[in-house]
Amino acid sequence: MIPVLLFTAVVALPQDTARLTVATAVDRALATHPAVGAARAQRDAASSEVGQARAALFPALSLDGAINRFEEPMVVYPLHSLDVRNPPLFDRSLSQVQVGAAYTVFDFGARTARVKAAESQRDAAGATLGATEQQLVARTATAFLRVLTARGVLAAEDQRLAALAAELKRARDRLAAGKSARLDTLRASAELASASADRLTSAANVDVAEHDLARLTGVAFTAVHGAPLVDVRLSAAADAVPQSAMLNPDVQAAERRAASADAAVGAARSALYPTVQATSAIVDRSNLTGRYLAEWQVGLALSYPLFTGGGRPSAIGRAEATARAAQQQAQLAQLTALQQYDEARAGVDEARARAVALDAAVQQSAEVARITQLARDVGEGTQTDYLIAESNLFRARSSLVQARHAVISARVELARVLGELSRTWIASSLEPLP
Fold first, then answer.
1. CA distances, 295 to each of 30, 260, 285 (Å)
2. Which DSSP string corresponds to 66-134?
3. Is the pLDDT score of 334 beyond 70?
4. Residue 82 counted as domain residue
5. What is the CATH number of the domain that holds 396?
C-alpha cells in the first residue's frame, strides 16, 4: 500500500519540474523505475513462499467426492463383516464423499528447515530490494549532479566566449585605429572559434545528462530540458566520513542466501529418516438411488523409502555443495564491500582535496587574468599572455564545478556502500544552496 501511495503522490507532483530538487528526483525514480518494481515483486514472491512453507506445519483438510460406473455390479458398502442374513448390496453406479484430515506428526525437522530456508530467502529478497533502491538513489543523485555539472561547465564556456568576444572587438577597434597589428585580430578570432567549438561539446553533454535524468525519473525530456535545478551541497551531518561498521545490503543478501542454503541442507538430510503422519476421515458411500452410509476412519502411517537409487545421498550432496558455495559468495560479498568502502573513502578524500585546490586555482587564475589584462592595456603585456590567462581561468572554473559535484557524488557512493543511502539520507545530507 505504501508504494502505491508514494507513486500516487509522485505522479500528482507538477510535471514541469519548475524547481526540481534531488529529493524529488529520487522520489520519482523510486516510484516509477522498473528495477525497483521487479525487486519488490521478487520480495513479495519470496514472502508468499514463506506462507506456503509454514502451511505444512498445520493439518491439511480436504473434501473429495466421486461417482463411478462399473461394468459389473460392485459392492456398495465395504464388507467389514459378512452377515448371511443381510447380503451385501451391489450396484454398477456408486458414489462416495469423503472429508479427511492429515497431519505430519514427526519428520525430523524437514518442515522447520524448509520454513527457515524460505524465511532466509525472503530476507535475502528484502536486502536485494534495499540494494536495488540504494543503487537507483545513487544513480539518480549522480545523474542530477551530472546535469548541474554540465550546465556549470556550459556557463563557464559562456563566460569565456563573452571575454573572447570582448577581446576580439578590442583588437578590431585597435586595428581600425592603427594601434595594433592584424595578427592580434586573427589570434582573438581563432581563440573565439575554438571556444565556440568547445561550447558545442558542452551543450551536447548537457543534453545527454538531461536525457539520462529524465529516463531515471520517468518524466518527459521536455520536463527536464532547461528546467531549473536546485543546486546542493553537503550538510554538516554528512560532512564527516563515518567510521562505523557497514550494513551493506549486498552483504546482507548474500548472508541470508547462505543461511537459506544451510537450512536446505537440514531439509535434505531429514529424508534419511522416516515420516510419521496421522490421518482421519469421514467417508459416506452409496449408490445413486440408495441411502448414504457414513463411517469414520483414523490412522497413523509411517513412511520410509528403503531404496531410492542414490537419490537421497545425491540430494544431500547437492544441498551441502550449494551451502558451501553460498558461504563463499557471502565472504566474497564482504571482501567486495570492504574494497568498495576503501575506494569510496579514498574517493571522498581525493575529491575534497581536489575541490580545495581548484578553488584556490580559480582565485589565482582570476587574479592572473586581471593582471595580464591590465598589463596588456598599458602596453606592458602581450595579448598572447592575456589569452593564455583567460584559457587557464576557464579550465580552472570548469574543473572546480566538476570537483564540487564530484565531492557530493563520492559521498553518495560511500553512503551506498555503507548501506545508509536512502531518500531520507538524501533529504538530510544534501541541502540546497542559498
1. 60, 44, 9
2. EEEEEEEEEESS--SS--TTSPPPEEEEEEEEEEEEEEEEE-TTHHHHHHHHHHHHHHHHHHHHHHHHH
3. yes
4. no
5. 1.20.1600.10
Helix (H, G, I), strand (E, B) or coil at 64: strand
7-21 burial, b at 16+ Cβ within 10 Å, e below that, comes to beebeeeeeebeebb
Instruction: Note whether residue 253 is domain-resident.
Output: yes
Amino acid at 381: G
SS3 for 145-213, per residue? HHHHHHHHHHHHHHHHHHHHHHHHHHHHHHHHCCCCCHHHHHHHHHHHHHHHHHHHHHHHHHHHHHHHH
From residue 301, alpha-carbon distances to 63, 100, 109 in Å are: 20, 14, 17
Looking at residue 296, the DSSP 8-state letter turns out to be: E
Residue 186 C-alpha cell reads as: 586573427
Three cell numbers, residue 179:
594601434
The pLDDT mean for the chain works out to 88
Number of domains in the chain: 1
Q: Which domain holds residue 22?
A: 2-58+107-271+311-432
> 89 lies in a domain?
no
User: pLDDT of 137-170, one tens digit each?
Assistant: 999 999 999 999 999 999 988 988 888 888 888 8
